[in-house]
Amino acid sequence: MLYSLKIWMFRLQFALTKSETIGLRDVNIFVAPVYTKAWFMATKAVSAPSSDLQLLKTIDSYSLINAVVSDAACKKFLNHLWYVGEELIGLSFFGDEDDVLPETKRLLVAGLTKPAPASSDVSLKRAQLRRKDIQTTQLGDFVSENTPHFFECFDISQNFPNRDPEGWNEDESYITAKKFLL
Fold it and tell me: What residues does each domain of the chain span?
C-alpha cells in the first residue's frame, strides 16, 4: 500500500508505461478509501473478525466503481479469512460495542449450538465464503459448536454467554478475559 502510493507520488521520475500508470492509479484509488480504513482499524484482535468481514463487504461493493480491482481483491481476500474461522470468531464475543453490537453478540451466542460444517472432520481454521454470499453474511454465520474451543484454549469461562450481552461487561470472568485479549 505505502509503496504503491510512493510510486504514484514520484511517477514522473519513472519510465512507466501507460498500462502501468493506469494500473497504479486504479490500485491507489482503491487503497485510499477502502484499504486504509481497514489498516488503521486493525489495532485490536477482538475487532479483527468484524473488521475483516466489513472490509470484504466494502471490497465487494467496490465493484460499482471498478469491477476489475474489486474482483481481484475479493478473490485474494477470500483466501485470507483467518479471523472469521469458526474458532477465532470467538474474538468477536469480546469486541467493543461500536465494533460488535449487542444484537450481533446475541447471534454469536445462538450460533454456539449450530453443528460444525460437514465439509471436514476437523475445525475450519478459516472461513469458507462464496463471493455471492458476501453482502448477506453476518459474524454469527461463522460460529459453530467448535467456537468454544477458542474459550478453552485461553481458559476463558464459558458462563458469560448465558447472560444477555448487554450485561457481559458486569461479568467478572468476561472482563478478565477481555482485558487479556486486548
Answer: 42-181
Smallest Cα–Cα separation from 26: which of 61, 75, 72? 72
What is the distance between the alpha carbons of residues 29 and 8, in angstroms, rounded to a whole number? 11
pLDDT mean values, one per 10 residues, the chain (182 residues) = 87 92 92 84 86 93 95 91 86 90 95 78 68 95 93 94 94 93 89
Number of helices and strands in the chain (H, E): 8, 0
8 Å CB contact between 123 and 87: yes
Predicted TM-score of the model (pTM) = 0.84
The neighbour count for residue 48, using CB atoms within 10 Å, is: 21
What angle is formed at CA 41 by the lines to CA 38 and CA 43, rounded to 5 degrees? 130
Euclidean distance between CA atoms 133 and 136, whole angstroms: 6
Residue appearing with cell numbers 467496490: 62
Checking 31-39 for CB contacts under 8 A at 24+ apart, the result is: 31/1, 31/4, 31/5, 34/58, 34/59, 34/62, 34/73, 35/1, 36/1, 39/1
Nearest to 105 by CA among 146, 145, 138: 138
Q: Which of 37, 63, 56 is nearest to 134 (CA)?
A: 56
CB proximity list for 68: less than 8 A, separation 6 or greater: 26
